[in-house]
Every structure is written in structure tokens, then in C-alpha cells.
Write a structure and sequence with these properties.
- The chain is mainly α.
- The strands form two sheets. A two-stranded antiparallel sheet has the order 1-2.
- 40% of the residues are buried.
- It is built from 14 helices and four strands.
- It is globular, with a radius of gyration of 21 Å.
- The longest helix is centred in the N-terminal third of the chain and has 34 residues.
- Strand 3 and strand 4 form a beta hairpin.
Length: 338
């Protein structure tokens, strides 16, 4: 009888799929959350209109990847889901409330006249809350969880600490960088000039927080320290921080020059380097330093069935996403067209 699990490493495949979905969400929803973070700082209402129009065709579809990541974790790694969700119920709920509030504000702003300023700030604070909670979830994940047996045994507010607040603020600045460089690429005139200045300002904070996170992770966990600073792994991994530093230098130069597309692409690569660094540090744990992805995996038959549907639907979603970005390429205007 034919069986996927007989010749495929299904847990590894699903780990890669979920990891890719989360990364795509961070990139694709990150820049429109970043635009929401920057929104009230724009110099004019016309600039804000351009900011909205630049993400109007994309923002809701970008959240597809969050659904795939969360749903895939529940279906393919139920033990990890059962541990992580009780530990992160509150920030996840706050994140979802922020995303919902942002979506409502986005729709209402295009229709509002008298209360448009109210929806401007609603869009801003919804985006800010969602970005902050995502960063705090990351910080809680890095610090690890109190596990007893196969269950979370900590408190409801274990996720709330100085480190998670720091990573939350760091991700807000990171998303702001993506949003600002997206605007450099998608707008011109006053909006683009303001976006260049904003991106240059935010870039320094992103670099500062990346250094802090890179230094603190080995201090938090001895396993991470041994991985990054043991020989010969140190020399194998050294190109990653060196390349990241080079990306920061090039983004800074491009923002002070005339390049429009490269700052955004290089900002995406900065996020990619950080994501790879986290993946290397946590391998093979899906619940940090307690449960590996193989221990948390669902039965092979379940993962096989899920993989069939994913193989069929994922190319459709990727094709639609690519076509959407191609169709709405070019500069955004301030004229309402949503």
C-alpha cells in the first residue's frame, strides 16, 4: 500500500512549511503593519492616502500565511500547539484583536469623512498592538516555557517580562523599517522623501535591537552559546552576522541615494538573516529546549493527508499572490480607488 511516510520525512517537511509560512507572514504583513505604525507621523493627509493605497490590494491576503502557520501547527504538531497556546493565549488574543481593529479601521477610513482622523488613529493603534504582541510572543518563545511532562505549567503572564517587551519594541521598529522602505519603492515626491528619512531613522534602532538580541540569546541559554561559539561552528556561522552588517551599510547608503527598490529588498534580507539565525539557534526544538519537532509530530497518516491538500492549494495561493503583486506594481497615488 502506498504511503507518504514510507519515503518522506513528513515532520521535517511540515516544520519547513510552517516555518516558511510564518516567515512569509512576517515579511508580507510586516510592511503593512509597519505602515500602520508610521501612519500618524506622515506629513499630510495626502501622504496618508498614498500609504493606504499602496497596501490596499495586498493587506488582507497577506494574513493568509498566519492562518497556514497557526493551522499547520495545530494539525501537524498538536503537542507543540497544546503547550504553546496556553502559554501565549493572552498575547495571541491581543494580536488578533489588533489585526481585527486594524482591518475595520482600514475599511471605514475609505468611507469616512467626518471621523476620518478617528479611523487614522484606530489603524495606527491596531497595527501597533499587533506588531508589539508578535514581538512579545517571539521574546517569550526565546526565553522558553515552564513545562512539566507534556503540558505548560507556568502562569498566564509568564510571557510578560522585560525581555519580551524589548523584543516587542524591536519588532515594531523592524516592521516600521519594512513599511518605510516599501513606501520608498511605491511612492514618490513628498511621501517618498519622508519615507527615506523615516527609514534612515528607524534603521539605526533596528540595528541596535538586533545586536541586543544577538548578544542576549547566548546569555539566556547555554545550548545557544555552545552552538554559536564552539569550534568550528563559530566560523561556519560567522558569515551570517557579517552579511547582516553589510546589508545594514548598503541600506543606509541606498536611503541616502536614489535607489528605490533595493532598500526594501535588502530589508527583507535583514529579516531573513535574523530568521535563519533563530532557526539555527533553536534547532531541533519546536517548544524551546523542551520538545523537539519529531516528539511533537502528529501521526504519519494525518500529516500525509494534510500534505496532499497543501501540495494542491499552496501553489494556487503562491500564484495568486505573485500575480497580485505583479498586477499592482508601480507607484501608488493619493486618489481613492479601493
Amino acid at each position: 500500500m502506498f504511503s507518504f511516510e514510507s519515503f518522506l520525512d513528513l515532520p521535517l517537511i511540515w516544520l519547513c512549511l510552517i516555518g516558511a509560512a510564518i516567515f512569509l507572514y512576517v515579511l508580507l504583513d510586516g510592511f503593512d503593519l509597519g505602515i500602520g505604525v508610521l501612519f500618524p507621523l506622515a506629513p499630510t493627509d495626502q501622504c496618508r492616502d498614498r500609504m493606504m493605497n499602496s497596501i490596499a490590494p495586498f493587506w488582507d491576503a497577506n494574513e493568509t500565511w498566519l492562518v497556514l502557520g497557526g493551522g499547520g501547527l495545530f494539525a501537524a504538531f498538536p503537542l507543540a500547539y497544546a503547550i504553546l497556546m496556553p502559554a501565549l493565549y493572552i498575547p495571541v488574543i491581543l494580536m488578533l484583536l489588533g489585526l481585527i481593529f486594524r482591518g475595520v479601521a482600514f475599511e471605514f477610513r475609505f468611507k469616512a469623512t467626518r471621523y476620518r482622523r478617528l479611523w487614522d488613529y484606530s489603524f495606527h493603534f491596531g497595527s501597533l498592538l499587533a506588531a508589539l504582541m508578535q514581538g512579545m510572543i517571539l521574546g517569550a518563545f526565546v526565553r522558553g516555557f515552564h513545562i512539566e511532562g507534556r503540558s505548560f505549567a507556568g502562569g498566564s503572564f509568564d510571557w510578560l517580562n522585560a525581555y519580551s517587551v524589548m523584543t516587542g519594541i524591536a519588532l515594531v521598529f523592524g516592521y516600521a523599517l519594512l513599511g518605510a522602505t516599501w513606501l520608498v519603492m511605491k511612492t514618490d515626491g513628498v511621501t517618498q522623501q519622508w519615507a527615506r528619512r523615516s527609514a534612515s531613522y528607524v534603521l539605526a534602532y533596528v540595528g541596535f535591537f538586533m545586536v541586543i538580541v544577538s548578544i542576549s540569546m547566548p546569555m539566556i541559554n547555554a545550548g545557544v552559546k555552545n552552538l554559536w561559539f564552539s569550534m568550528p561552528m563559530f566560523f561556519y556561522l560567522l558569515p551570517m552576522p557579517v552579511l547582516t552588517a553589510g546589508l545594514f551599510v548598503q541600506i543606509w547608503r541606498d536611503l541616502r541615494g536614489t535607489s528605490e527598490y533595493r532598500p526594501f529588498v535588502l530589508s527583507l534580507l535583514v529579516f531573513l538573516m535574523g530568521y535563519i539565525g533563530l532557526a539555527v539557534s533553536f534547532w531541533p526544538w519546536i517548544v524551546p529546549f523542551s520538545v523537539t519537532f519529531r516528539q511533537a509530530a502528529a501521526a504519519g497518516s494525518s500529516q500525509s493527508l494534510l500534505l496532499v491538500g497543501t501540495v494542491i492549494l499552496l501553489p494556487v495561493v503562491l500564484t495568486y499572490t505573485a500575480f497580485c503583486y505583479y498586477l499592482f506594481r508601480g507607484k501608488a497615488s493619493h486618489e481613492g480607488a479601493y
